[in-house]
Amino acid sequence: MIANLIENGVKFGRFSVAVAVAVARAGRTCRATVEDDGPGIAEDERVAVFSPFYRIKRSRNRRTGGSGLGLAIVRQIVEAHGGTVEAGAGGLGGARLTLVLPLEP
Fold it and tell me: Of 27, 34, 42, 78, which residue is least crowded by CB atoms under 10 Å?
């Protein structure tokens, strides 16, 4: 899950070097965030990006490739473990993807 989010950050970031990863315990959960310095995800697309085969229009080019399955798979895995995942605006100017997973089943 985290590797997929980091790969996306590198792929869609402006310079492919500004990707920040943080993991912290928050009560009975583990919170992991991945942020990049790319163009971000528009607010009206922040839920849709987790749908199978959904790709943001500007990401449909030969440089980035992909089928639009990565974030859908991340969501399925996270939810199968009782967690949540969401997209938002990051502090580096791009996207912030946040996973929250329970520490105990």
Answer: 27
User: Beta strand pairing status for 29-36 and 95-102?
Assistant: antiparallel
- DSSP code at position 85: E
CATH of the domain at 28: 3.30.565.10
Task: Please give the Cα distance from 68 to 52 (Å, whole number).
Answer: 6
d(CA 76, CA 64): 23
Quote the CA–CA distance of 20 and 52 in Å, as a whole number. 25
- Whether 13 maps to a domain, the answer reads yes
Q: Report yes or no: 57 and 44 within 8 Å, Cβ to Cβ.
A: no
Task: Tell me the residue range of the domain where 77 lies.
Answer: 2-91
Q: What's the sign of the alpha-carbon dihedral 81, 83, 88, 94?
A: negative
Model confidence pLDDT, tens digit, residues 22-79: 999 989 999 999 999 888 999 999 999 999 998 886 554 555 566 789 899 999 999 9
